[in-house]
From TrEMBL:
Coiled coil: none
Highest rank taxon of the organism: Bacteria
Entry keywords, A to Z: Membrane, Transmembrane, Transmembrane helix
Record-linked PANTHER family: POLYISOPRENYL-TEICHOIC ACID--PEPTIDOGLYCAN TEICHOIC ACID TRANSFERASE TAGU
Spans traversing the lipid bilayer: 21-47
Name of the protein in its database record: Transcriptional regulator
Low complexity composition bias: residue spans: 384-407, 414-427
Domain Cell envelope-related transcriptional attenuator: 98-273
InterPro entries: LytR/CpsA/Psr_CW_biosynth, LytR_CpsA_psr
Keyword Ubl conjugation in record: no
Amino acid sequence: MRKFRSPKAGKERRPGRKSKHLIRNIVLTVFGLLFVGVGVIFFVAYYNIKGAIDSNTFVSTNIKKERNVDSVLSKGKPVSILLMGTDTGELGRNWVGRTDSMILVIINPKTKKTLLMSIPRDSMVSIPGYEYTFPQKINAAYEYPANGKGHPETSIKTVEKWLNVPIDFYGIVNMEALEQITNKAGGISVKSPLTFTFSEDTAHDYGNNLYTFTKGSTKYKYYKNGSTLTKTSNIMNGAAALAFTRMRYNDPLGDYGRTLRQRLVFEAIAKKATVLIPQIVNKKFLNSISKQGKTDLTFNDMVTLASNYRKALKNIKSDSVQGTDYEYSGISYQVVASKEKQRVTNKIRKFLGLKKAKSGPLYASKVTNGVVIGDDSSTETDDSTATYSSSTQQTYTTPATTYSSSSVQPTAPTTDTTTTNNNTGGQ
């Protein structure tokens, strides 16, 4: 890991309390599943859904869009949605957290394909309008200006300038939504790509509410007090799904490996869509789930997406911006090289049916405080991506790296004293 030291930059600048980075990309794609993929069900439950969306969910950014979004939707052109996850309300938090997950979704109804482009939360940027705080992580953009409120417009501007691509809409969801959706679906079954142990209480491999997952198996174990076996199951409920998607520190692939596990969960939820949709179409649940998300998609926009764009969700291509670890003044970042940024820009613009164009500035905006971090050509990556469709099984690989059976040696409890259980109730 390259280390940079500067006497002027000893602290990571952010206007709020420290976050433990527990938000996961899976929540974002679930949000898309609910509001894009349910199709004609929207019309059947029109009044129930419209009331929940209009009263709880719609929040305008009050910024001028790069494109006329009404024209984009009415003409059936490819559309872009920046999906973000926040930790507000999770683990007792009631403050505005960072968007520790970001996925740019491109839905192309003409090619009937969808692109999910994951953006590493630690990507180093200079936030437009707040260049004096450089270096920042891209997940901090949501906190600016620092007035105790979330600002999706700042995140949108940062990503647009960084990659030189238009963003038509945004969606932001809270972690609690994933638990609710998974439980409503009756739980999911996911085969783990590696063996690991994770505690919801500590975010490490020790503590209460401890889960152990085994490579190649759908079976997991749950230890409520961290040592005594409480349950063994092949079906993940909401809490288990969160644990499975949260672990980062013991993953040999780091955040990239975690992102791939999140996609396994998304695919499992998507396969249960026929069960999930009838479960969510009731006023009480919709009012509850809609409070966990905000978007500038109106109800009519969602109806248009559901009716005219849903076929594109049957062929989903997944990719991720690839960066290199950099440590600056004791803080870890991901620096994305110019060549990689251009690859990502090219791919997104192609999905959008736009002409090729040069990617944005290396850090999204001009650096004004004198801090200098160069563009390292060694961070370049090829176009190696994880691709899947609704009818094929997701592979768990990343460029030039795969798991081995000895990759992770978790610290798992050994006391198995209670009766096993394959139900989804409880933890």
